[in-house]
Amino acid sequence: MTDRPLSRVTGLDPGAFGERHWGREPLLVHGAGFTDLLDLDGVDELLSSRGLRTPFLRLARDGAVVDSTSFTGPGGVGAEIGDQVRDDRVAALFAGGTTVVLQALHRLWPPVIDFCTRLGAELGHPVQANAYVTPPSSRGFSAHYDVHDVFVLQLAGRKHWTVHTPVHADPLRGQPWNDHATAVAARARDDEPALDVVLEPGDALYLPRGWLHAATALGETSAHLTVGVHVVTRFALVEALTALVGDDPALRASLPLGLDVADPGALAPHLDAVRAALHAAIDRIPAEAVARRTRGRVWTGNRPEPVRPVAGAAFADGLSVGDAVRPRIGLHHRFVDGVLELPDRRVELPAATWPAVRVLLAGPARVGSLPDMDDADQIVLVRRLLREGVLVPAAPQ
């Protein structure tokens, strides 16, 4: 697994991708290859022997979602949970032309977990992954747009994609395509597509949010992995500013008794006063406060690299000089004035450890080579950060 999944799916270095395509226009890349992430045997394993439950599986037919009660049921003795996937029912529906959608594979399937953890760390935006498995010559969903960017990774078979320019550019999460269904249908029906391509196994397609797309399998079962990027937008800063101005008393004051808020003329002077106070309040908000407010959705948007509880505990208990550790991929943090800020807590560390902590967070590093601490104290520090889930064992070089 490459440490640079972004270059793998774009064929470009991150700077070039960011300048030319990120949030701007689609990108098609041929022949990267992605069967190490998931293949059709893996799809069958997930559907048949992993105890999958809704909502981790969704089925679609003729552009509509299939009722989950038609393909789920209890799992028998000791597994009476009623929404487990029935592989025989899924098989019958798939044979009849229904598309299978495996959802949240970034939480289910180890190769995809690793890939998405690393990709999210590179992008700085949370990611998710779904797989779409389409029967021969079937279309799962009609033309639509997504409210997040996507990387489409063709796994098996061939799929014909048509892509049209947006009818609503840069949609926010609360602005789904069905809000513009008439315009979407007209654009897909009447306009020349911006892209009209067939994806072969190993091809990748990047689509910024808002770009219309529809896909049809060609002649054989087709599978692709869609990696959705839940981009943090400028509107997130607006939301943070709006929340933070609640600290200003001038903006919390009551409107006058008896005011008819439906009367624009009566409301106008109060609105002018609020605009002036809002402008002044926004100007006083420091970037630090906005960063703290905004980072929550990024820091908690994805779980970081999985840890191995049993093996990790044994490693920490037996830690000795020469053992190598590294930061946990995808774990967001800040280390300021001896406080290690994590998504769910703050860890205070003694001043004598700060130089060593900075080395460890830049990692990888070996116990015994950390600055300004003797070996015994290094073991104590590293063991604590292992148990906090900040560090993990580094692979032998």
Describe the structure.
Helix 7 packs across helix 9 (287-299) and helix 10 (309-317) packs antiparallel against helix 12 (375-387). The strands form five sheets. Strands 1-11-8-13-7-6-2-3 form an eight-stranded antiparallel sheet. Helices cover 33% and strands 20% of the residues. With 397 residues, it is α+β, with helices and mostly antiparallel strands. The protein has three domains: 5-229, Jelly Rolls; 234-299, no CATH class; 309-393, Outer Surface Protein A, domain 3.
> What percent strand?
15-25%
Structural class: alpha+beta
Enumerate the spans where pLDDT stays under 50 for 5 or more consecutive residues: none
What's the rounded overall pLDDT mean?
Answer: 94
Number of strands: 19
Distance between the termini: 16 Å
Shape: globular
Q: What can be said about the biggest beta sheet?
A: 8 strands, antiparallel
The portion of residues assigned to helices is: 25-40%
**CATH architecture designation of the largest domain:** Sandwich
CATH topology (level 3) name of the largest domain: Jelly Rolls
CATH superfamily of the largest domain: Cupin
